[in-house]
């Protein structure tokens, strides 16, 4: 069953070509593609078939789903997300139980080898009964759904690295998607929750180039995870000058000084919050005076106190791109 | 078309990138005149502090043309006081800047009517004329 092209889909929704070109220009910019590629991107993306997507929510808090679905539609950022064929997502779909599972299997059959699998949440391996859908364990559903998928997008830190369910002592034996599925292209879009625009951009890249974008060693898209929060933090000049807030209400905090000594994990955290920001671009945690928790990194929950400094200042002083090199360079 | 990628930061540090950028714009303008070669500079792709960004915009200034486009959020196009040098800013519906570019060209592509939109327009205008003519003939019939 061939789904309509995105061009047809957008046209039917009254989205003008000009709006689509604007979307392509800003997405190319986010993906670090040259602006000369925008016309080609618009042609390839417009002619791409509306993708069939199966979204499996496993052991999760629904924060990832909330982050993505909260943006009011249609928005420039969610233009593509609004036009995918979301054939299964049991948290939000009207169907339930066997009816929902029938819809998932029907989509898998109709789009064999072509559908994308989105997963949020980790998979409990200790006792598969800890998390089941329609009586089926998460691991069985993942294996069954991944078998004929073209690729998998692991959304959020839980699906990417195990996340909070995996936190010590990991009572459910939680693991990441990539611990189970090893024979499919997988992109990890970590973050607790992840940046919705990174998901859109990865979908655009996949639909346009028929492959996932360049990834770091943790399988995260380099365009969003190539630099640390610290690399792009507006408080960075204060860090270099060793001007630190020592408590949440001292003079340093009032002056907007660096939060390193309050436990900021920005120097070791790869994500694009400092540039993309949250809540319709309002701010990111450091702008609200709170240190970065490092939520897009593996085991962030178990790395000591959120409010304890990472280490001596000298270790992190003026080493822009240090971490980017640490994780750089893996292609999908 | 050539382009340079420039990253924007919100910090107050001076990156020293304004002068090289202005020289690049000057060079691109001469390329446009001599070889009709267009250039787009993506201002998200090189460090520029907020004050340097303001300095760049103040230098470019406003020329004769300013256009507002409404396409899932505003897009503002300003021809700078240097003909052929345009500033393009894409906003989303929350008035958040999604992209900012300097185009060195005769007319930024986004302002042109797009062939796909024109095809749809043609069918719309045909049906609107059709309805109008029906409406007028109904009114004439009523008057009779
Ligand atoms: S990554 Fe964070 S937001 Fe997403 S499901 Fe896990 S705990 Fe919730
Ligand atoms: S330590 Fe944190 S607050 Fe300080 S500059 Fe780095 S990211 Fe910003």
UniProtKB/TrEMBL annotation, chain A:
Keywords: 3Fe-4S, 4Fe-4S, Iron, Iron-sulfur, Metal-binding, Oxidoreductase, Signal. Gene3D superfamilies: Cytochrome-c3 hydrogenase, C-terminal domain (4.10.480.10), NADH:ubiquinone oxidoreductase-like, 20kDa subunit (3.40.50.700). It comes from the Bacteria. InterPro entries: Cytochrome-c3_hydrogenase_C, NADH_UbQ_OxRdtase-like_20kDa, NiFe-Hase_small_C_sf, NiFe_Hase_small_N_sf, NiFe_hydrogenase_ssu, TAT_signal, TAT_signal_bac_arc. GO terms for biological process: anaerobic respiration. It is found in: Cell envelope. Residues 61-205 form the NADH:ubiquinone oxidoreductase-like 20kDa subunit domain. Heterodimer of a large and a small subunit. Belongs to the [NiFe]/[NiFeSe] hydrogenase small subunit family. This is hydrogenase (acceptor).
TrEMBL record, chain B:
Residues 17-124 form the HupH hydrogenase expression protein C-terminal domain. It comes from the Bacteria. It holds the Pfam family HupH_C. Belongs to the HupH/HyaF family. This is HupH hydrogenase expression, C-terminal conserved region family protein. It comes from Alteromonas macleodii. The lineage of its organism: Bacteria, Pseudomonadati, Pseudomonadota, Gammaproteobacteria, Alteromonadales.
């Amino acid at each position: 069953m061939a789904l309509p092209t995105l061009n047809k889909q957008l046209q039917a929704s009254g989205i003008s070509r000009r709006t689509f070109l604007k979307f392509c220009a800003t997405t190319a910019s986010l993906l670090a593609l040259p602006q000369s590629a925008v016309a080609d991107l618009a042609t390839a993306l417009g002619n791409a078939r509306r993708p069939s997507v199966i979204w499996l929510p496993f052991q999760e808090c629904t924060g990832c789903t909330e982050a993505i679905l909260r943006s009011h539609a249609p928005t420039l950022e969610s233009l593509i997300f609004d036009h995918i064929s979301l054939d299964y997502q049991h948290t939000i779909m009207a169907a339930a139980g066997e009816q929902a599972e029938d819809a998932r299997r029907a989509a898998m059959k109709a789009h064999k080898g072509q559908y994308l699998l989105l997963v949020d949440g980790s998979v409990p391996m200790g006792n598969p009964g800890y998390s089941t859908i329609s009586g089926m364990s998460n691991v069985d559903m993942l294996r069954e759904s991944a078998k004929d998928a073209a690729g998998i997008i692991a959304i959020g830190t839980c699906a990417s690295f195990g996340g909070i369910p995996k936190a010590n002592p990991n009572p459910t034996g939680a693991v990441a998607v990539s611990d189970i599925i090893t024979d499919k292209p997988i992109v990890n879009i970590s973050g607790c929750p992840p940046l919705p625009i990174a998901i859109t951009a990865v979908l655009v890249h996949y639909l346009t180039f028929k492959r996932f974008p360049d990834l770091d060693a943790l399988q995260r898209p380099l365009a969003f995870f190539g630099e640390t929060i610290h690399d792009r933090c507006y408080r960075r000049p204060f860090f270099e000058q060793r001007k630190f807030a020592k408590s949440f209400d001292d003079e340093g905090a009032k002056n907007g000084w660096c939060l390193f000594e309050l436990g900021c994990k920005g120097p070791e955290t790869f994500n694009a919050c400092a540039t993309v920001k949250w809540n319709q671009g309002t701010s990111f945690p450091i702008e609200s005076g709170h240190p970065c928790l490092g939520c897009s990194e593996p085991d962030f929950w178990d790395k000591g106190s959120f409010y304890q400094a990472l280490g001596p200042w000298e270790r992190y002083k003026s080493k822009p791109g240090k971490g980017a090199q640490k994780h750089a360079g893996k292609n999908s | 078309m050539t382009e340079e990628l420039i990253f924007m930061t919100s910090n107050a540090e001076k990156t020293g990138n304004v002068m090289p950028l202005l020289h690049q714009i000057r060079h691109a303008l001469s390329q446009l005149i001599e070889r009709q070669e267009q250039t787009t500079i993506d201002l998200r792709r090189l460090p520029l502090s907020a004050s340097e960004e303001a300095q760049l915009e103040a230098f470019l200034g406003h020329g004769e043309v300013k256009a507002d486009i409404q396409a899932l959020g505003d897009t503002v196009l300003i021809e700078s006081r240097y003909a052929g040098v345009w500033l393009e800013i894409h906003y989303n519906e929350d008035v958040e800047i999604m992209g900012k570019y300097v185009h060195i060209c005769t007319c930024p592509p986004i302002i042109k009517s797009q062939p796909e939109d024109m095809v749809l327009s043609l069918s719309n205008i045909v049906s609107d004329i059709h309805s109008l003519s029906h409406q007028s003939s109904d009114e004439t019939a009523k008057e009779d």
